[in-house]
Amino acid sequence: MVQILIAPDSFKGTFSALQIALLIESCIPNGEVHKTLLQPLADGGEGTLEILAAAYNAKTVSAQVTGPFGNQVEAKYAVSDSLALLEMAEASGLCHAKNGILKPEIATTYGTGELITKVAHEGFQKIILGLGGSATVDGGAGALQALGAVLTNKQGKTISFGNQGLGDLEHAHFENAISNLTKSCLILATDVTNPLLGENGAVYVYGKQKGVREEDLPAFESRMRRFAECVERAQQESFRNKPGSGAAGGLAFGLMAIGGEVASGFQLIAEHVRLEEKIQYADLVITGEGKFDRSSLCGKVTGSVIQLCAKYQKPCYVICGTAETVSPEMLAPDVKIVPLFSHQNIGAADLKTETANRLKSIIATLMKAAFKS
């Protein structure tokens, strides 16, 4: 019996991981395969909450919290026994930017801190927070404030929300924030390894996608540096260069300062859905993402799936919206990169329809090639 495992990441802005998995499955011609197994994946970013909730059979609930731009938003999270599953984008993500208007100077993680505080007070002993899709560059200052940290300026007044407030920070006290998490283990799920500061840090690498203009990057970086110095002075420990501290606009840095621990989002999901075992028993694996490039091979979902396929000598097709040229020696012989488009010049609405059309013909061709007699 031919076994096909369909295990994609999301196609950001177009299809969730589950949606694209279902679409791929629907394009496999009848009779070509006896069994397909769907396993949507994520790496701590978009889709992490949905996939982990399914893996843990957790109940999805919601709460009203402060959005990234100060308005109230409804944020989903999931709970199961002593475990709470959160996704920072639900409270502080780019998805809350109306008409695509971003405000990085004032964008805050306060709502994420409200979610963490809520589940900690409700007695959940383990909290997994997916870091990804953030609209913020505040170093986690807002989340720390919601958790009870006192961040003040020279006059002893609370600093304002967002990156703009970091430049005024003079004193930081974390006793209340740490106390609120004494009975909970906070795990920060991400596969971003960037430090907080510098050319590879939160501002210079990810600032533009949150709306920071090129000419404003130095000012944002300067304020983030001041924040880091104040936090580390208060905690008498350095966090800025720890891998992943730059994740989610530096939110990881702020939460590390009160005991948060970074963990690979992909590994968390892969272990709980028994991905390696599923690949081991598959005859063919289909994975994918919106854009495949060299960074895909550096710890992201598709690259990690490719590595597992190589370990068990399984053929792997990578379906992607677009693909950059990757040196053949970077891929195992049984890996085939299959881009659906050579360029991105159609609107999002057309993109969904055209993706489905192209998938149908491409999948049919791939199945014939994979299982020709």
TrEMBL record:
Q: Which InterPro entries match?
A: Glyc_kinase_flavodox-like_fold, Glycerate_kinase, Glycerate_kinase_RE-like, Glycerate_kinase_sf
Report keywords, A-Z: Kinase, Transferase
Which top EC class is given? transferase
Cite the EC number: 2.7.1.31
Entry superkingdom: Bacteria
Molecular function per GO: glycerate kinase activity
SUPFAM superfamilies, alphabetically? Glycerate kinase I
User: What's a BP term from Gene Ontology annotated to this protein?
Assistant: organic acid phosphorylation
Concerning Pfam families, the annotation shows: Gly_kinase (PF02595)
Q: Does the keyword Kinase apply?
A: yes
Q: PANTHER family, per this entry?
A: GLYCERATE KINASE
Q: Which family does it belong to?
A: Belongs to the glycerate kinase type-1 family.
- Identification of the protein by name: Glycerate kinase
